[in-house]
Amino acid sequence: MVKVKLPRVDWSPVELASRVSRRGAFYNFASGSPDPGLIPISDVKEAVEDVLSEYGSSALSYPGAGGLRELRIEASRYLREYLGVNADWRSIIITSGAQHAIKLLTQLLVRKGTRVYVEDPTFYETLAPFRFQGAKVIGVPITDDGMPTGEVVKGIKEGDIVYTIPNCHNPTGTCMSEDNRRILIEAAEERGFLIIEDDPYTVLSLNAPRPLRAMSSSIIYVGTFSKLLGPGLRIGFVVAPNWLRGSLERLEQHDFSTSTLTQLIVHRLLKGNTVSRVLSRVRGFYEGKLRILVNALDEYMPNSLQFKPTCGFYALIRLGVDAERLLRSAVKAGLTYVPARRFFINGNFPDAARLSIGVIKPERIEDGIKLLSNLIKGMG
Ligand SMILES: Cc1ncc(COP(=O)(O)O)c(C=O)c1O
After folding, report:
1. Band of the pLDDT at 1, cuts 50, 70, 90?
2. What average pLDDT is seen over the chain?
3. Which strands make up the sheet holding 314-318, listed edge to edge?
4. Could you tell me if the CB of 99 is within 6 A of ligand 1?
5. Ligand 1, from 226, 235, 257, 356: best to mutate by most atoms within 8 Å of Cβ?
6. What's the pTM?
7. CATH number of the domain within which 85 lies
């Protein structure tokens, strides 16, 4: 009989809600994927063919640690052009999405008891690796101005880590104010704590401020092409300060990531005009869907919205009834969302739900919210 005590690994509420959505949800408020109509399928198809004809079997060989040099150079150009971030290509480490980047950073930087400050609530999927590694996670209640820099932040010390989604926050849709950004960066530089910035959504937005990394090169910046080109490509990256980049690159030897083929495909897409074309359709589009959502919530579920979302995909609401229980009847009615209790550090607020406008068609949003409000009434 094998007797092994395994560490606890939980299913994430995002994974569970995405599974039921994949079975077909007419009103899909759960998925964090980009709008299927905006994924550049024909460009990807062309890029696959070009890459295979040009590179042949070497497109299917093992990747080297750190990522392909040509992709890192293009990623550096992309960061400068679309996000106002100046980063030498050598400081860019390619990863299998932002999620892999967070996991690698956690393995390198977090030991048992390391204090990690996060917005409360925050994205559950990134919280999980911090906890798995033994971090002491400290939630700073978020406001419409993002992570506040008051009393709590004064206690952050050398060796601590701040993990933040300053723009188009997941799950609240808020952006950190200019004052909070400045104070946080100055405090980190003065006291020597680390800031990890997770930034999947700024590039999609018309209104979001520039990333923290545009203000300070000491920020550890995590980016991704998931929301622009498709999450199934699994291409993200870290912009790492000098002291970190060598170790991060070498740590990638442990998992032989990231797929050579998809690195070459994304390289091809970045070199052509795909990104600028996709962005000309995307920028403003998601903000438009978010506005429809907010208006529908105001009309059919007044006072349910907890924060004012300005960009990205998400809004956080309170349903007034248990979110997991309601989800069962919602799924039967063709509607999904993510129960958000576990996005809160202490798991309070069992009636919290994350609504996403990523994949849902704009014309279905209002009807979906009307249906959700009726489902709640049916439970009461
Ligand atoms: C804040 C945040 N971080 C990380 C990720 C994961 O992105 P990727 O697909 O690049 O792993 C997401 C995806 O929803 C996200 O919202």
Report:
1. confident
2. 95
3. 314-318, 352-356, 338-339
4. yes
5. 226
6. 0.97
7. 3.40.640.10
- 366 in a domain, yes or no? yes
| Residue 154 confidence (pLDDT) | 84
Residue 342 DSSP class: G
* Residue 75 burial (CB count, 10 A): 26
Cα of 101 vs centre of ligand 1, distance in Å, is 10
Q: What atom in ligand 1 is closest to the CA of residue 235?
A: 10
Strand-pair category, 335-336 with 314-318: unpaired
Task: Point out the domain boundary residue: 273, 293, 308.
Answer: 273
Query: Does residue 246 share a domain with residue 299?
Result: no
Structure confidence by residue, pLDDT tens digits, 28-70: 999 999 999 999 999 999 999 999 999 999 999 999 899 999 9
> Domain range holding 225?
61-273
Q: Is 123 touching ligand 1 by the criterion CB < 6 Å? A: yes
Domain termination site, one of 215, 245, 273: 273
Query: Residue 379: its pLDDT value, please?
Result: 82
Task: Please check whether residues 288 and 343 belong to one and the same domain.
Answer: yes
- List pLDDT tens digits, range 251-271: 999 998 899 999 999 999 999
Strand 27-28 relative to strand 115-120, pairing: unpaired
Question: Ramachandran region of residue 159, left (φ > 0), alpha (ψ -120 to 50) or beta?
Answer: left
With a 6 Å cutoff on the Cβ, whether 32 touches ligand 1 is yes
Same-domain check for residues 223 and 344: no
**Sign of the Cα pseudo-torsion (299, 301, 306, 310, in order):** negative
Closest C-alpha to ligand 1, atom 7: 98
Distance CA 21, CA 358 (A): 13
Name residue 354's beta-bridge partners.
316, 338
Strand (E) or helix (H) holding 305: none
**Cα 66 to ligand 1 centre (Å):** 19
Q: What is the CATH number of the domain that holds 317?
A: 3.90.1150.10
